[in-house]
Amino acid sequence: MSKTILIVDDDLDIVNLLKLYLHVEGYRTVEAFDGKSAFNQLKNHIIDLVILDIMIPIIDGYQLLQMIRQDYKIPVILLSAKNQDYDKITGLKLGADDYISKPFSPLEVIARIQAHLRRSYEFNNVVSSQLNAQIRVGDLLLSQQECVLYIKEKAISLSAREYQLLKLLMSEPGRVFTKKQIFERAWNEHYIADDNAIMVQISRLREKIEKCPRNPIFIKTIRGLGYRFAKKDELIP
């Protein structure tokens, strides 16, 4: 599956130039021209890497970088005309993975993107192999090796779609997942607007894991946005 790159810059010519080179290399692109729109794009798409200009409207690049680092671990490459050492150090300290000064060579940008995506892929594979393959939140333990959910050591049968959905939610407690993200990340399917499949699966999961499905403590509905799994400190002892 081709990777998706988010380009954030208020200069249309630069955005179009990067799009051209990225599409030739087989990448998909999503664009934003200000910080607020960029963060919305992150919430609505599965983004693999961000190319971020510092001097953008509404929310500047440094602020957006801090917001990204609160919720995402994807590589971020800063691309800016601010080329003093102070600017580079500030960006790297805030969590940027790389810093490229304008004017730039598009071929160099592509090479940097490929390098960071390769390192990110290799790192995630190493981490995955080192983990215990279990996700625990409160009394719930999801065994990824067995594809089985345990509640206080009692095995709970899950369908494949229920397991995939629960794994996604439990893997990042507190994070809100939109319906589109659930379709794409949990089920690897294209999102169908107004489809009730997610609501049905959520309802079935709640019947299996909640003491009171109508008043759930684990799977929360965030109206107008999607669903999230409760953090450990939100659960009643």
UniProtKB/TrEMBL annotation:
It is found in: Cytoplasm. It comes from Lysinibacillus pakistanensis. Residues 132-231 bind DNA. The keyword Transcription regulation applies. Pfam families: Response_reg, Trans_reg_C. Keywords: DNA-binding, Phosphoprotein, Transcription, Transcription regulation, Two-component regulatory system. It comes from the Bacteria. Residues 132-231 form the OmpR/PhoB-type domain. The modification 4-aspartylphosphate is found at residue 53. Signal peptide: none annotated. This is Response regulator. Residues 4-117 form the Response regulatory domain. PROSITE patterns: OMPR_PHOB, RESPONSE_REGULATORY. Gene3D superfamilies: 3.40.50.2300, 6.10.250.690, Winged helix-like DNA-binding domain superfamily/Winged helix DNA-binding domain (1.10.10.10). InterPro entries: CheY-like_superfamily (IPR011006), OmpR/PhoB-type_DNA-bd (IPR001867), Sig_transdc_resp-reg_C-effctor (IPR016032), Sig_transdc_resp-reg_receiver (IPR001789), WalR-like (IPR039420), WH-like_DNA-bd_sf (IPR036388).
